[in-house]
Amino acid sequence: MSGSHTGRVAVITGAAGGLGREFSLALAARGCDIAIADIADATAVAADIEALGRRTFVQRCDLSDAAQIKLFVEGVLESFGRCDILVNNAAYMPVTPFAELTLEQFRRFEAINVEASFLLAKLLTPGMSERGYGRIVQIASSTTGTPMPGFLAYVTTKMAGIGLTRALAAEFGGDGILVNALSPGLTRTVESEKNLPTELFDSVRDLQLIKRTEEPADLVGALLFLTSEHCGFVTGQTINCDGGVRF
């Protein structure tokens, strides 16, 4: 599978840590140059990527701001000349009870979890279409099938991301651009451990067929397939990678 990524350019949002960091390093190890947009500082990840012999472009970017996204894409194209792989990984997910959720807060969920993916696709697919090759992966969530209190805005926007995936796949199937969603279960990261109670990890683990908590590395194999040349006839799909969770 490694040869199918060699020389590609991958754009990954939210890659300063967590899943995005794991995805960036895995793609770099297989020959991709990496561009990262994150509101957090991603210079440490960039250094790790460059230690693997790949080039990087990193820009701090509030993905709720369309102007910042456009500047990021301009930087990517100036640095690399193209994008072959887009991984819409960044997510906004503070746990907010519905009674406390304001329209302004809900719109921030929409902006980061859906609108940023739309705009990045809008800006990067013309080049993919021209070259006849592209891979877009939207990181979804198992919460779309098993919503919990406090996650209304997150679940709603993650479901919208799945709809965007299916619709983009229909738009670009004739152009060699394959668009799929990858749906993790509850994954242990620094952010998830900080924001979610320990008992939630325990209860989800007990409902999985695989009886351990999911780690970022567990998603890498699926991500590598969906972004590779070997994924030649899979599009418009949501791939569940959640340990077989059964509620």
Keywords:
Rossmann fold; 7 strands; 247 residues; globular; alpha/beta; SDR_fam; SDR family oxidoreductase
Number of helices: 8
Classify the oligomer.
single chain
User: Could you give a short account of the major beta sheet?
Assistant: 7 strands, parallel
Radius of gyration: 17 Å
- Please name the CATH architecture: 3-Layer(aba) Sandwich
CATH topology: Rossmann fold
Low-pLDDT windows of residues:
none
Helical proportion, percent range: 40-55%
CATH class: Alpha Beta
Strand order in the largest sheet:
3-2-1-4-5-6-7
Structural category: alpha/beta
- The run of helices and strands is EHEHEHEHEHEHHHE
Structure description:
There is one protein chain. The chain is of the alpha/beta class and about 250 residues long. The chain has a single domain (about 1-240), classed as NAD(P)-binding Rossmann-like Domain (Rossmann fold). The chain has eight helices and seven strands, in the order βαβαβαβαβαβαααβ. It has helices at about 20-30, 45-50, 65-80, 105-130, 150-170, 190-195, 200-205, 220-225; strands spanning about 10-15, 35-40, 55-60, 85-90, 135-140, 175-185, 240. It has a seven-stranded parallel sheet, with helices on both faces. Helix 4 (about 105-130) links the parallel strand 4 and strand 5 (about 135-140). The longest helix has 29 residues, at about 105-130. It is globular. The protein starts with 8 loop residues before the first strand and ends in a 6-residue tail after the last strand. The model has no long low-confidence stretch (mean pLDDT about 95).
